[in-house]
Please model this.
Amino acid sequence: MKRRVLHQESYILHTRPYSESSLLIDAFSRNYGRVSLLAKGVRRVKSKLRGIIRPFQPLLMSWSGKGELQTLTGVESTFAIRAFAQSGWLSGCYMNELLIKLLHKYDPHEQLFDHYNDTLQLLHDGKSPQVVLRLFEKRLLTEIGYGMVLTHDVKNNSPVLEDKLYRYYPDSGPTISDGTDLDSAWIVGGSTLIALENEKFSDSRQLLQSKYLMRALLNQSLQGRKLNCRYTLQHLSSIK
Model:
């Protein structure tokens, strides 16, 4: 059955050349999730869409066709072009890679789309990537079926305590640490779990533990697939 979609709120996640004048596009749309589109002729010098098809800009996209690869039929810009500092741009690339590798095509995630839009705006406004990325990762894990347990010990159902250390089990949640393997990314302070639950971080230790915990959880979902932007971000952090 042929699909025809008009003026769908969307973002470009990734593009790659196709033939001499066209592009293959990965896009994230509000009502259709991640979609693959063929943009014919947009690489031509006279194409009106050359300056519009770019990441991190809110767009209204139209497409039609049968099967998994649809044909782009129109693009409209809905917002003044966002300019990002290097850290914000790389953080956006990181989010895009996560969406491409963890979301199934044509599976709607409307709440995640809204959060992605809000996160881009926060990055544009200069908010700390370390904070906004942790919250985006948390929402993404929930959307793909791996919502985190952050409020109670999964063995005895007691509330998480700020001054205790916990071992986080990816298939269930946190339980009081027995004191072994304290260097593991799965060991996290109770105050960090509470900060993640409340989405408010009070110190750098909470942010660092959250980063390692999220990385471990996402690595399991990625099943060995590497994230190029993650390693670029790590390299830039190491040379500052």
